[in-house]
Amino acid sequence: MTIGADEIAVLARNGWFARQPAALQERLAAAGRMVTLRRGQWVYSQGDEGTGLCAVIEGALRLEVALGTERDVLIGLAPAPAILGQARRVGGGPRILTVRANTASRVLMIPDDALDRAAAHEPAVWRAINELVYAQLEQMTRLAAHLLIQTPRGRVAMRLLQFAEGDGAPVSQADLAEMTGLSRKTVNAHLAALEQTGVITRGYRAITLVDRAALERIARG
Asked: Across the chain, how many H-helices and E-strands are there?
């Protein structure tokens, strides 16, 4: 499936993509292939040798890390218009995450061979990918630091803000518990308190942010 104007518009909302020269944007968009995913469907697995980029056009992806052979840990969600991935050509190794659809989703996949073809015309592809990988590393480093110093309620507030789309955060209470390192019972108690004070309202697999400024104050501690 080829990419159309609507998909280009979503890509343009991604900060990294928007900073690239127009010619590089066009080359990257043309190099990709649109894929439709069912909820729970795998995009790629930790340890896969084939790398490349994945742009979320619609829906959201789950980012998981395997700890040994016993457990996959959810470390984040990537909603549209997130772009993630890496490239072995510029010093990367196998995939370091397992990624699968959190909801029914559509993604633009740009594998290694497509990046090679794009780079034949736009060598700046590799510089741009280095910037993207660095930005991903910086984001995860800052997230780890915030989670270490936050109060439990601050962790919940921070994650809600991180995944907010407009006035809503399409995240389940079970996922919030896993991504904050808290029990589901503890997360439910904090959400109930936030709802009672008029900061949020709870729904099925989604939470509405009623008072975003208050939630930001809680996240800042």
From this structure: 9, 11
Peptide bond into 152 cis (omega under 30): no
Dig out the tokens for 141 from the structure: 């480093």
Between CA 101 and CA 217 the distance in angstroms is 31
Amino acid present at 55: A
What is the CB neighbour count within 10 angstroms for residue 9?
11
Please give the angle made by the CA atoms of 153, 158 and 45, to the nearest 5 degrees: 115
**Cα(95)–Cα(97) distance, integer angstroms:** 6
Residue 22 φ then ψ, to 5°: -55, -40
Q: What is the C-alpha R_g of the chain?
A: 18
Asked whether 52 and 116 are in contact (CB, 8 A), the reply is: no
Reference 24, options 123, 170, 138; nearest CA is 123
Mind listing the pLDDT tens digit of every residue in the chain (221 residues)?
A: 668 899 999 999 999 999 999 999 999 999 999 999 999 999 999 999 999 999 999 999 999 998 876 788 899 999 999 999 998 877 678 999 999 999 999 999 999 999 999 999 999 999 999 999 999 999 999 888 888 889 999 999 999 998 888 888 888 899 999 999 999 999 999 999 999 999 999 988 789 999 999 999 999 87
Residues 10 and 57: beta-carbon distance below 8 Å: yes
**In 10 A of CB 67, how many CB atoms?**
9
AA letter at 169: A
